[in-house]
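Technical annex B. To support the medicinal chemistry partners, we prepared a structural model of the target in complex with pyridoxal-5'-phosphate, based solely on the information shown next.
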Amino acid sequence: MPRPSYFKIYLDALNHNFDALSHLAGSRQKMAVVKANAYGHGAIVCAKNLEARVDAFAVAITEEAIELREAGIAKPILVLQGPHSPEDITAITAYSLWPAISNHYQLEWLRNHPYNPDQVWLKVDTGMHRLGFAPNEVADVQSTLHTEGVSQIILMSHLADAEDAKSTLTHRQTARWNEVLNTQHDAAEITERASLSNSASTVGVLSPPESWVRLGYSLYGGSLIALPPGLKLRPVMTFNSQVAAIRWIDTGETVGYGGRWVARRRSRIATIPVGYGDGYPRAAADGTPIGTPHGTVPLAGKVSMDMITADVTDIPDIDFGTKVTLWGDSPSVDEVAAHCDTIGYELCTRITGRTPRIVGY
Ligand SMILES: Cc1ncc(COP(=O)(O)O)c(C=O)c1O
């Protein structure tokens, strides 16, 4: 009998989320961000499933785009980090990818390359200060790209604090974004070739001028912000297992490495065969919720490489073989992440290859 621990990927949930987000995005074109193996969900399977619905895909690096092309994905693919070397431009043109260009080295590599992509995304640093040309460089870079025969230039920027539409940082970035668009010769036209929003900015209240949204985490059903009324996203990934051992311990006994969890009463402890070797975060605090058909129980004790333990004293129905949900509908990956001082993005992305990923509807 194999270990009863697995991830299930629900493609119908992915479709549902895409359709719901598309509705919010309105007339803006929709890009599905499938970098880092589609945030751990499986890039090829997710891209194949979404291909008929999306206008384009985005990945971080050329290698990820090549993997998709070789799997038969024909829709446009934006490489968000752009080329990392002159050879990367050769791959970008050979596989008909869209590069994002964010510095003068990349621009120079493009200029020296005999063929250029017909579409280039020009990344502007509006305040995240990670990648991008300064706003006052944009006009020159556009003119160089035009001279090099690039026919479509899409302006893009990335928000550092999109979850907080009212923050000073978001305000500063959106103000700079508006300025960049306003300094274009044909402001109307350029607003049709511009992209600022990620998930939080699409789901939230920002509505910046743009023609493309780049949807990542929300596609997979997670959110760092409260969803607007009427928007229901479904978790694409569930992390499942079963109780593999159960025992009573006396008051004062401890559970797991370092004895972090101490029994304040006579306690019933369930052992579940998943650990940080599967991607369940070692940072999970005591009390992190674990779902069962009879209710939620708290994590009790440090996460081991292959096992976790839960205090099931209050739910006698939980026994050997009871199914558990580490994340999915309840608890959500965002709830689990909140107990681990991280975000659900990291939990999904860090799942390991040891645990089967079963794809279904
Ligand atoms: C440049 C860029 N655009 C869009 C996204 C998608 O963001 P989200 O997953 O929050 O939708 C990311 C993700 O990190 C990104 O780096």
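Notes passed to the chemistry partners:
Residues 30 and 329 are 26 Å apart (CA to CA).
The pocket of pyridoxal-5'-phosphate is lined by residues 33, 80, 158, 198-200, 214-218 (CB under 6 Å).
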